[in-house]
Write a structure and sequence with these properties.
- The two termini are 45 Å apart.
- The protein folds into two domains: 18-196, no CATH class; 286-399, Heat Shock Protein 90 (2-Layer Sandwich), CATH 3.30.565.
- The chain has helices at residues 27-45, 47-59, 63-85, 91-111, 122-131, 134-156, 161-234, 238-263, 271-284, 300-320, 351-362; strands at 288-290, 325-331, 334-339, 366-371, 377-382.
- It is built from eleven helices and five strands; from the N terminus they run αααααααααβαββαββ.
- It has a five-stranded mixed β-sheet, with helices on one face.
């Protein structure tokens, strides 16, 4: 038999009221749910007042009467307290609470030898439905109803089915109130958890986008700043240095625009623009670039994510490699970036490659990276299977 899923309902499962103690949840919702349960129990327990009055009329004002009325008062108070605090205690505590409430509720019937007073156990059974697994609570309820029927039959010769119906009906009504509050509480807790997860995912998305936007540009600017410093220190060619500073200014403005667009969630990335930016960054770093002249063969749905691949791969070349050559090849559903560098230790576990893997997974693509067959480093991104883009003719991808 297949194992039960953790969230699948089971009659042997203990009711999980942990959302009442969750500090990150909706505090007003938790308080409102507990108040509703306690008020429902308190309102129903007012019926015990009528029971106490009836007992006083029929039994007089003797010590037994005062004892029974006192027990009824304790029973009513304990039911309200149990409905408020019971859900927050552990399993053994719940069993003890239900047992204590049940004994208090059954005491008047036993002391007065009257099975009709077992009808008052409806409140104790409701507490059982609230705190115990459904199987145990139902067995307790069936045992109580059967005990009252048998006791009535032997003690009175007949069964007061109206009182039995009250025992069953009021118990079912209170149990329904508790079940509704239990369900509403879990729905509120689930909604709060979904909200927290959404915030966490959005933070991860923004962090990934900011890394993708700034990592490439800042790497290129760092290389160009170093080149400008070396020019000023060695040759003192101010005109050439000014030209590099002008390019730096352009890069800084582009990065600022990208950041603003990213925050506004309107940024779209172009594979063509990333190839142009890669050419500029590689040239500034003294790395020869072999890039495709056109990207018309790339499927439009993959151009943006492939732009991220080119940006991150070229950034890794600038940061982690001593390469002299960087080559980019593209196909309808793939893009490959290779270099001939000998040092790429920082590229294997970076956030950038992890982010690329997530981006490609979102479009049913895959990412491969590692040592290139002829030496250096290789990043290969593949889009979905060709059948996904039937409107485009495909050529064989790299092996």
């Amino acid at each position: 038999m297949a194992s039960r899923e953790p969230d699948e309902f089971s009659v042997d499962q203990w009711p999980d009221w942990s959302f009442l103690n969750d500090p990150s949840g909706d505090a007003s919702g938790r308080a409102r749910g507990r108040v509703v349960v306690a008020v429902a129990m308190a309102s129903a327990s007012l019926a015990l007042i009528a029971r106490a009055v009836g007992i006083a009329r029929h039994t007089g004002s003797g010590p037994l009467t005062f004892l029974v009325i006192g027990l009824l008062a304790c029973y009513g108070i304990s039911c309200v307290v149990a409905s408020w605090y019971g859900p927050t205690v552990l399993r053994q505590g719940r069993v003890a609470i239900v047992a204590a409430v049940f004994l208090l509720g059954a005491a008047p019937a036993v002391l007065l030898a009257s099975p009709s007073y077992l009808t008052d156990l409806t409140f104790a059974l409701s507490i059982g439905l609230m705190l115990l697994p459904l199987r145990r609570a139902l067995l307790l309820g069936l045992g109580t109803v059967a005990g009252q029927i048998v006791w009535m039959r032997f003690a009175q010769g007949e069964v007061a089915w109206g009182q039995v119906a009250v025992l069953v009906g009021v118990t079912a009504a209170l149990g329904t109130v508790f079940a509704l509050n239990f369900t509403i509480g879990h729905l509120r807790a689930a909604r709060e958890q979904v909200r927290r997860l959404a915030v966490h995912q959005e933070r991860e998305r923004v962090a990934r986008d900011m890394h993708d936007v700034l990592g490439h540009t800042l790497s290129a600017m760092t290389v160009k700043l170093g080149l400008t410093r070396r020019i000023l220190e060695s040759s003192g060619d101010v005109a050439l240095a000014v030209g590099h500073v002008t390019e730096l200014e352009t890069m800084a403005r582009t990065a600022l625009s990208d950041v603003r667009a990213t925050i506004s969630d309107y940024r779209t990335l172009s594979l063509d623009s990333e190839l142009a930016g890669a050419r500029l960054a590689l040239r500034a770093a003294g790395v020869r670039a072999e890039l495709p002249a056109a990207t018309d063969a790339v499927h439009p749905a993959l151009r943006e994510v492939f732009g991220y691949v080119v940006r991150e791969a070229v950034t890794n070349v600038l940061r982690h490699s001593d390469a002299e050559l960087c080559t980019v090849h593209v196909g309808p559903d793939w893009v490959e970036v290779t270099d001939n560098g000998s040092s790429h230790s920082g590229a294997y576990a970076g956030n950038g490659l992890n982010g690329l893997t997530e981006r490609l997974a979102a479009v049913s693509g895959t990412l491969e990276h590692g040592a290139a067959p002829g030496g250096g480093f290789r990043v290969l991104a593949r889009g979905p299977a060709p059948a996904t883009h039937s409107s485009v003719s495909y050529e064989a991808g790299p092996t």
